[in-house]
Structure formats: C-alpha cells, structure tokens
UniProtKB/TrEMBL annotation, chains A, B:
Class of this enzyme: transferase
UniProt keyword annotation of rRNA-binding present: no
Protein known as: Pyrimidine/purine nucleoside phosphorylase
Function field: Catalyzes the phosphorolysis of diverse nucleosides, yielding D-ribose 1-phosphate and the respective free bases. Can use uridine, adenosine, guanosine, cytidine, thymidine, inosine and xanthosine as substrates. Also catalyzes the reverse reactions.
Gene Ontology CC annotation, any one: cytosol
Molecular function terms, GO-annotated: guanosine phosphorylase activity; purine-nucleoside phosphorylase activity; thymidine phosphorylase activity; uridine phosphorylase activity
UniProt-listed InterPro entries: Ppnp, RmlC-like_jellyroll, RmlC_Cupin_sf
Record EC number: 2.4.2.1, 2.4.2.2
Catalytic activity entry: adenosine + phosphate = alpha-D-ribose 1-phosphate + adenine; uridine + phosphate = alpha-D-ribose 1-phosphate + uracil; cytidine + phosphate = cytosine + alpha-D-ribose 1-phosphate; guanosine + phosphate = alpha-D-ribose 1-phosphate + guanine
PANTHER family listed in its UniProt record: PYRIMIDINE/PURINE NUCLEOSIDE PHOSPHORYLASE, PYRIMIDINE_PURINE NUCLEOSIDE PHOSPHORYLASE
Family the UniProt entry places it in: Belongs to the nucleoside phosphorylase PpnP family.
Lineage, highest ranks first: Bacteria, Pseudomonadati, Pseudomonadota, Betaproteobacteria, Burkholderiales
Keyword annotations of the record: Glycosyltransferase, Transferase
Amino acid sequence: MTTETLQVTSVTTKANVYFDGKCVSHDLQLPDGSRKSVGVVLAAELSFGTAAPERMECVGGACEYQLEPQGPWQTCEPGQSFSIAGDSRFNIRVAEAFHYICHYG
Amino acid sequence: MTTETLQVTSVTTKANVYFDGKCVSHDLQLPDGSRKSVGVVLAAELSFGTAAPERMECVGGACEYQLEPQGPWQTCEPGQSFSIAGDSRFNIRVAEAFHYICHYG
C-alpha cells in the first residue's frame, strides 16, 4: 500500500537540492520527534552515501537500486521499500521519477 | 524574517514536478485546514498560471518576477513575498535557486 500522506508536525521550508536538482527533498519532523524526508529523484543515475541507516519507501514512480559493494540491481515500486546500512553507499537509476519517503535509523 | 519551519499536520508524499523538474513542490495541510505548498525553482526562466490567488514567500535563494501583463521585473529575496491575482500569470527568472512557500487564497 502506498503512503499518500504523512502525518507530521513541521516541515523545513528550504529544500535540499542534490546533484544539480536531480534529487530534491524536504525535511520533516514527526509527532514522535523523529525526522524523515520526502523527495523525488528525476531521470538520472546517482550514487548516495548514508550516515545513519535509511529506509527508502517508494510512493510514486519507480527506481532500480544497488547496494554497495556490488549488490544486484533490484526494482523498487510504489508500496515497496529498501533499506541501506549506515555509513555505506547505494546507487540508483531512475527513468522518469522516483518519489520517496526517507526513514532514518 | 525568514520562515525556516512551518507547522503543519500532513504532507502529500508525492512531489509536484513542473517543467521537467525545474520546479518541485510538496503539498501541505495546516492545522486550520488550509493548504500551502513548499517548493524550489532551480535555474530557469518560467511562466506560471494561477487558479486561486497566491502569495509566494521566499525562504531561501532569490528570484526576479514579473506579474502579467507586463509588470516591472522585481526582486524577491528571503523574508520577502509577492502576491499574484487568481486566474492570471506571472514570469519568474532564477539564477541559482528560489525556495518558497506558496500560500493560497
């Protein structure tokens, strides 16, 4: 099931812009005090590093992703998610757009 | 004063992507039931139409804007805003990024 809306308490108004705008996200604070972000990756092939562990939940579009080092390329579609360890990297290929919620920790 | 965070109750997780990603926004619902959006326009010269009246509040970066028909080009910087009538158009020029809150009505 796709998460169409997310209950939050506040949003950071200034966007995070990565890779010349190929990835744009906004940070959110939740009622339990935790933080998440919502964002979109546009048509691109990009490599991201993590600090904390992350879970990327697809809420629209799709991507292919690869966990480093050299995991298999897998597809992530609406309602699906994938988890990345902290202090590691993942690669992502997007044909049109990949809309996501990033869950931390 | 720049609005760095906005108190909201929910966010629509899927982004609005306009002009091949030159403008990306997320819709928000506020505690009073009203709707706003937060977004960013990247380096571009774009023309937008309005349905309801809008007020664009700059929360980062800057833009030049022109209200149609043929208003003067004016600058909008953090803490400033400009208002657009309903059912009309405005043009915007951005050199790097223009981060905004869009207030409706």
